[in-house]
């Protein structure tokens, strides 16, 4: 092995060690509550957009198994999220997804719809969780013990994994809606209130996937 190859190997080893150290730091809650049994992370995607559903993910990861580069979904590129989605789906002990659409959001408000999506995600799990790690919230009407963690998607590897599942699931749905309603550019804006999205909303009016309670300022 020449010096260039040795240097490349050294940098790769340093990079791997740094990533393992980061994941170790993000596993503090998982270690703390490991004695309870199955630890489940929960997070959501899509509370703020003008259109589309709110989606929740629930993930139970194997104890002491590290999935490299799992992080808060907002800190990852779309390509990286898609890769990690497949990795999580193949290696997690259980994954649940809950989807609540615009009509229900308008009916019960976005916070209650988010809770509903989270309960749906937990109900989908094939492994019964013993403790839930939540991103900052306490979900009503669940008997499982819950631990709300502020900015949990950046502090817990389980919540981060759930954030990736929720985000990728929702983004895929919005790309499909983008094919049905191309004027709104849902594939790129994912339903958020970008300038072009608001202009399309004013020009063409709302679609069936718009949240009526969210768009009152833009359409009559």
UniProtKB/TrEMBL annotation:
Gene3D superfamilies given in the database record: Ribonuclease H-like superfamily/Ribonuclease H
Q: Which CDD domains match?
A: RNase_HII_bacteria_HII_like
Q: Where is the signal peptide?
A: none
| Gene Ontology molecular-function annotations | RNA-DNA hybrid ribonuclease activity
Annotated a divalent metal cation binding lies at 43-44, 135
Domain of life, per the record?
Answer: Bacteria
Q: Which Pfam families match?
A: RNase_HII (PF01351)
Q: Which reaction does it catalyse?
A: Endonucleolytic cleavage to 5'-phosphomonoester
Q: Which UniProt keywords apply?
A: Cytoplasm, Endonuclease, Hydrolase, Manganese, Metal-binding, Nuclease
* EC numbers on record: 3.1.26.4
Q: Does the keyword Metal-binding apply?
A: yes
| Compartments where found | Cytoplasm
Q: Show the InterPro entries listed in the entry.
A: RNase_HII (IPR022898), RNase_HII/HIII (IPR001352), RNase_HII/HIII_dom (IPR024567), RNaseH-like_sf (IPR012337), RNaseH_sf (IPR036397)
Query: Which family is this protein grouped under?
Result: Belongs to the RNase HII family.
The protein in question is named: Ribonuclease HII
């Amino acid at each position: 092995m020449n010096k260039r190859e040795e240097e490349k190997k050294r940098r790769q080893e340093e990079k791997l060690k740094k990533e393992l150290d980061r994941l170790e730091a993000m596993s503090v809650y998982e270690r703390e509550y490991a004695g309870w049994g199955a630890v489940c992370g929960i997070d959501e995607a899509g509370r703020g957009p003008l259109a589309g559903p709110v989606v929740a993910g629930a993930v139970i990861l194997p104890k002491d198994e590290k999935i490299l580069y799992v992080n808060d979904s907002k800190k990852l590129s779309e390509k990286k999220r898609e890769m990690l989605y497949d990795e999580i789906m193949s290696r997690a002990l259980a994954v649940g997804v809950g989807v609540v659409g615009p009509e229900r959001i308008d009916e019960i408000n976005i916070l209650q719809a988010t809770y509903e999506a989270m309960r749906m995600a937990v109900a989908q799990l094939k492994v019964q969780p013993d403790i839930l790690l939540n991103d900052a919230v306490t979900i009503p009407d669940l008997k499982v013990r819950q631990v709300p963690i502020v900015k949990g998607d950046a502090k817990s590897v389980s919540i981060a994994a759930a954030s990736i599942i929720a985000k990728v699931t929702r983004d895929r749905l919005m790309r499909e809606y983008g094919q049905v309603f191309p004027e709104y550019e849902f594939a790129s804006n994912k339903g958020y209130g970008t300038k072009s999205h608001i202009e399309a909303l004013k020009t063409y009016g709302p679609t069936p996937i718009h949240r009526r309670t969210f768009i009152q300022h833009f359409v009559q």
